[in-house]
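Sequence in, structure out. Go.
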Amino acid sequence: MYIEVGAWSGRRHPRGAVVVGYNGKEHSRVALAWGAEEAAQRGAPLLVLFAANYPGMTTEPGPGLLRRDPGALEAAEEVTARGVVEAHAAFPGRWVVGATEVTSPSRALTEASNDAAVVVLGSRGYGRVTGALLGSVAFAVAARAHCPVIVVKDESVDRRAGPEHPVVVGTDGSAGATAAVTFAADRAATTSAPLEVVTSTGGRQVAPVAARELRASAHRIAASAAGQLRRSHPELTVTTRVEDRPAEVTLVEASADAGMVVVGTRGRGAFEGMLLGSVSHAVIHGATSAIAVVGEDRPDAVTA
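Output:
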């Protein structure tokens, strides 16, 4: 076991690691358990990352770091070390790395994502509103990370993708959604889970002719994605679902039995210009399964 615990000094994180945002709270311990298993499945190192951004710490480099409270960094490093010990106990023999950074959690995790295979986060605990995700680290990192981001809900910790719990992915045919479909297919294949591809007409009130065109387009997108998946992953059981209601409603509903719901960062909807699309935003907030957010410019994994 290798442990790197200390204030960030510009050293690179291990390339291809599974990065877990950790702060010692229960939600982050749930994420740590998930991340440790993720690292074991990938044969990748695990980076336990604590961003010590609280009163008593400063973001000034050098001697200014301890200006307000000389014991603050030591206390932060103890939190990181506990996370490393927990992860190593769960998966002994893995390469577990701990790092403490004196900056905001969203910045630390986004920067770490440059070299990561995937970033794993708990569903709450960083925001000022207890239990809320709006404005939290989960949204910020999912929007800006350079690799896929998995958000683990407390209620989903014992429900992983597998034969009894499908991987569900939403697609609208956009580049971002295509990347999400590829990630979902790989996850389903790795876990022997069925894969459900969901498309939607959006549930808008439109003229009958337009409604038929929307429905036909949604069916074409679903059929095209399923056809490609059956060629690239012939071992998968792939089903499609086309809904005449908002995609996020269907995806959140499907999350009740899913092992994972996968979405892109943004698509072709009215909120296309937003960094994190309206569908992915709503799914992160409302889903009860783990959620993977995959951008079109994010590879499935950075290899070690």
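Check: Strands lie at 17-21, 46-51, 96-101, 116-122, 149-152, 167-170, 195-200, 238-243, 260-264, 290-294. The chain has eight helices and ten strands.
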